[in-house]
Amino acid sequence: MRKRVAVVGAGPSGIAALKALLAEGHDAVAFEQSDRIGGNWVFRPEASHSSVYETTHIISSRRWSSFEDFPMPEDYPDYPSHAQVLAYFEAYAARFGLAPHVRLRTRVARAERCATGGWILTLAGEAGPATERFDALLVANGHHWAPSMPEVPGRYDGEVLHSHAFKRAEPFRGRRVLVVGAGNSACDVAVECSRVAAFVGLSVRRGQHIVPKFLRGRPSDDNHAGLRWLPAPLRQRLLGFGLRLVQGRYADYGLPEPEVGLLEMHPTVNSELLYFIRHGRIHPRPGVARFDGPEVVFTDGRREAWDTVVFATGYNIRFPFLDPALVPWVDDHAIPLYRKMIPAEVDDLYFIGLFQPLGCIWPLADLQARIAARAIGGRWRRPADLPARIAHEMAHPHYRFQRSRRHAVEVDYHRFRAELLAELG
Fold first, then answer.
1. How distant, in Å, are the alpha carbons of 152, 153, 157, 191, 279 from that of 309?
2. Strands 315-316 and 214-215
3. Dihedral, CA atoms, 86, 88, 92, 97, nearest 10 degrees?
4. Is 65 helix (H, G, I), strand (E, B) or coil?
5. Nearest Cα to 369, choosing from 36, 15, 2?
6. 97 burial class (0-12, 13-18, 19+ CB within 10 angstroms)?
7. Which of 5, 231, 255, 417 has fewest C-beta within 10 Å?
């Protein structure tokens, strides 16, 4: 059954959603507030929606970062740059004829559900505000664009920014820079700054698993994929042992040891951090306790002056166009969506790409989009016991992930892919 469907966002998840809807014969349109497709992968030197910086490369390998029906070019490196990734998305859009169905420079200001079903979208574009009606809504606005800034007691006299605003290292040349955090963004920013800054500190509150991009001469996610046939506990122990064998104990680098196993938290994929620590270019510090003028006071009592503090403290999940009553769970430690996409209460609303895998998002977002497109057309039926299935999914994550907002949408790439493929039959 052909329906009129709106997609919010034309990043990688949004274009996958649009392609799936068109393939099912729906009348679909994607709304993108930027002037081009690509979402977070559109690099701009000024502050923008995108969080990629000048030297960004993906942290999942080319093989596991390709749409399954559109592989990345063979001449791409194992870990393509942001420019190559954006060119890939543009080629994907051209291959599937998506451009005529994308409205650029158009922001969804509000999405209101009609009492009888369907949605009224209030749009803000170059021609001024407008409203349009749709039968269903796919939300693919991403979850790496609304910075989460911690509240630190005291007053700080230096420069403070979130890693979302970090674009290149050159402005920090000759400065003392403290990076707060130990996730992928934090370690990338610390490494880039260490090339030009006078002194770089890395404030780490709790231990993280640092995974190099290559193990045994292969991308690290290839090694993980090669062991996916093993039971999860055995796979975790084997990977953790191999990582310890390669790089030793984190305490040897001045970093805290992780409190959970390798696959029970989102790993930090970085081949240079430990190298730069042992070469004296990055200096680990404990958590930040408070500010005091030009100084940062750490939890161990140490006081140091810094020119700049960069908070690489993650992102909030936000849907500013939706009624908060529809998404009261945005700041919770678990997300009540079936297959991370379908709410129990609303039968014409789908979230695409709202998960964080141990791997890449958009190949799995493509599978979610296919499910949504079939559901809207009546070729996939929602389970009758949907609330019970959601409760079971929340109570049985793929691993015993840390209970935190950071891991609210965490999944294992290969197990989640198998679950989505099972839904598609």
1. 12, 14, 10, 15, 22
2. unpaired
3. 60
4. helix
5. 15
6. exposed
7. 231
Let me know how many helices (H) and strands (E) the chain has, helices first.
9, 24
Alpha carbon distance 21, 104 (integer Å): 18
Position 390, amino acid: I
Q: Is the dihedral of CA 143, 402, 233, 387 positive or negative?
A: negative
Residue written as token pair 């059954």: 1
Report how far apart the first and last C-alpha atoms of the chain are (Å, whole number): 19
- Of 269, 266, 240, the C-alpha closest to 401 is 266
When the pLDDT of each residue in the chain is averaged and rounded to a whole number, the result is 93
Q: What is the dihedral of CA 368, 373, 375, 377, to 10 degrees?
A: -170
Report whether 265 contacts 246 (CB < 8 A). Answer: no
Burial bucket for residue 148 (CB in 10 Å: 0-12, 13-18, 19+):
middle
Q: Is 21 helix (H, G, I), strand (E, B) or coil?
A: helix
Q: Which residues, including other chains, have CB under 8 Å from residue 320's CB and lie 6 or more apart?
A: none
Q: For the segment 231-286, what is each residue's pLDDT rounded down to a tens digit?
A: 888 888 888 888 898 899 999 999 999 988 888 888 899 999 999 999 999 999 99
Give me 102's structure tokens.
């994308």
For residue 30, give every residue at least 6 positions away whose Cβ sits within 8 Å of its Cβ, in sequence order, or none: 6, 7, 8, 9, 10, 14, 15, 17, 18, 98, 101, 102, 103, 140
Helix, strand, or coil (residue 298): strand
pLDDT tens digits for range 291-349: 999 999 999 999 999 999 999 999 999 999 999 999 988 887 788 999 999 999 999 99
pLDDT score, position 402: 66
**Where are the alpha helices (H) located in 7-145, listed in sequence order?**
12-23, 82-95
Q: Give start and end residues of each alpha helix (H) in 182-295.
A: 184-194, 220-226, 232-247, 273-278
With contact defined as beta carbons under 8 Å apart, do 310 and 161 qualify? yes
For the chain, the farthest-separated pair of C-alpha atoms sits apart, in whole angstroms, at 65
What pLDDT, in 10s, does the model give residues 43-95? 998 877 778 999 999 999 999 999 999 999 999 999 999 999 999 999 999 99
**Could you tell me if 80 and 86 are in contact, meaning their C-beta atoms sit under 8 angstroms apart?**
no
- Whole-number Å distance between alpha carbons of 189 and 180: 10
Question: CA distances (Å), 257 to each of 210, 271, 281, in order?
Answer: 11, 18, 21
